[in-house]
Write a structure and sequence with these properties.
With about 150 residues, this protein is an all-alpha fold. It has 6 helices and no strands. About 75% of the residues lie in helices and about 0% in strands.
């Protein structure tokens, strides 16, 4: 996660420099907006990983997991916009959305009757959940706005 985050931050800095120089094209502006969004999501997920409680008390874990689960669930439905796509692009978006939903559902099922056997298990499990969902989310987002294409 940190590598993708730092890569996005580097790209963001490059685009902000171009913006400040008055040389940012509309596709680059869209890419900057997308980078801002992705960075925000990755930082939020990073915070969830770092703040995951280390305990076996299911009540203490419940609120934290509600936050994680709700944030991940929102990723399935928000920001469905980007440049107009042809039929192939629309199919790619549908496939990426279905894949993201499947990954999220599969990972979430693991927490339905979650009872950690050791204090650190929850933190490890949340990290695994987030690190499994995020690559599918990035693929999904790329089906709407391909940052690499916009800034090349």
């Amino acid at each position: 996660m940190a590598t993708v985050l730092s890569q996005y931050q580097d790209q963001q800095k490059t685009l902000l420099d171009r913006l400040n120089a008055g040389k940012l094209s509309p596709p680059e502006l869209l890419a900057l907006q997308e980078l801002n969004y992705r960075i925000s999501v990755l930082q939020t997920m990073q915070a969830y990983c770092k703040s995951a409680p280390v305990t076996t008390d299911v009540n203490a874990l419940g609120y934290h997991f509600q936050l994680v689960s709700s944030s991940l669930r929102f990723l399935l439905t928000e920001r469905k916009f980007g440049p107009k796509a042809d039929e192939k692009g629309m199919k790619r978006r549908e496939t990426a959305a279905s894949s993201l939903e499947a990954v999220f559902s599969d990972q979430s099922r693991r927490f339905q009757s979650f009872t950690p056997s050791a204090p650190e298990i929850y933190r490890e499990s949340v990290r695994k959940l987030i690190n499994t969902v995020l690559p599918a989310w990035i693929t999904y987002r790329t089906s709407y706005i391909n940052i690499e294409e916009a800034i090349s």
